[in-house]
């Protein structure tokens, strides 16, 4: 059962959504501005420091915590935002919450956004940043965990597939938050959760997908990882809310991963909305999810340490 705080937040989100119904459709610039304004109200935790870096020709942001924690490795983060909005800045709170929970430094990639830079620009940037971290940055891939939310979680899955296919060393694991894995929009939850989701209007998803892939196959495995061959991927942790139109994007991806022999842990959070983990420190379910993700990441990195003393 969801907490009262979860229900109160959802009610506020529904009220805000109703306020904008009926007006002209917002432009990409207006959507971006609204997203940045909303995320600016979610500052990172205290003691976090950030630095812009050039990650192999890709803009990125490194983040460290001044808290006295044992740094076990690097969280390689790919932000959400439908492939057309968002940045490392908008996701600082979520990234620092995960880093604190797992004892990691962060590297968030500011991958190029659609419609100015459609597919495969985001995948190319995710690959370049990861390779820079391993090669120029000297990080052991078994000390790296990839993570992302929404489109960034779908991009994280695409990154794993591209790394596997290219023969690159894979990370220790990946934490996927509400992953968008099917840009073709075939999941039943696009219909069954349409009235329950306070964040995503399924009627807008086709347009969002078209910004990212204006021409081409929406079932391309690097666009929609649901349709990929998934064998050989590293361990996965997948979290999704039950009140999401992307519920089936997550659950079907989990099922196909397990059938391919990928070690997967997953959880569907009752009544939870899209990427509720953003509200860590404000929402009990978010704190619990971050804590569980931190424990899972720690176990993945500890397992790597046992293999390589």
> Roughly how many Å is the radius of gyration?
18 Å
Q: Percent of residues in helical segments?
A: 25-40%
- The CATH class name reads Alpha Beta
- CA-CA gap between termini: 43 Å
Average pLDDT works out at: 94
Element-level helix/strand string: HHEEEHEHEHEHHEHEH
Alpha-beta classification: alpha/beta
Stated plainly, the CATH topology is called Rossmann fold
- Number of helical regions: 9
The CATH architecture classification is 3-Layer(aba) Sandwich
**Which superfamily, in CATH terms, is the homologous superfamily?**
Alpha/Beta hydrolase fold, catalytic domain
Low-confidence segments, given as residue ranges, are none
Q: What proportion of the residues form beta strands (DSSP E)?
A: 15-25%
What does the main sheet amount to? 8 strands, mixed
Strand segment tally: 8
**Strands of the biggest beta sheet: in what spatial order?**
1-2-4-3-5-6-7-8
Number of domains: 1
Shape estimate: globular
What's this, in brief?
39% of the residues lie in helices and 16% in strands. The protein has helices spanning 4-20, 28-40, 92-102, 121-135, 151-166, 189-192, 205-212, 247-259, 284-307; strands at residues 48-54, 59-65, 73-78, 104-109, 144-149, 173-177, 236-241, 264-269.
What does the model show?
Helix 8 links the parallel strand 7 and strand 8 (264-269). This protein has one domain: 3-Layer(aba) Sandwich (Rossmann fold), CATH 3.40.50. It has 309 residues and is an alpha/beta fold. The mean pLDDT is 94. Helix 3 packs across helix 9 (284-307) and helix 4 packs across helix 5 (151-166). It starts with a helix and ends with a helix. The protein contains nine helices and eight strands. The protein has an eight-stranded mixed β-sheet with strand order 1-2-4-3-5-6-7-8, sandwiched between helices.
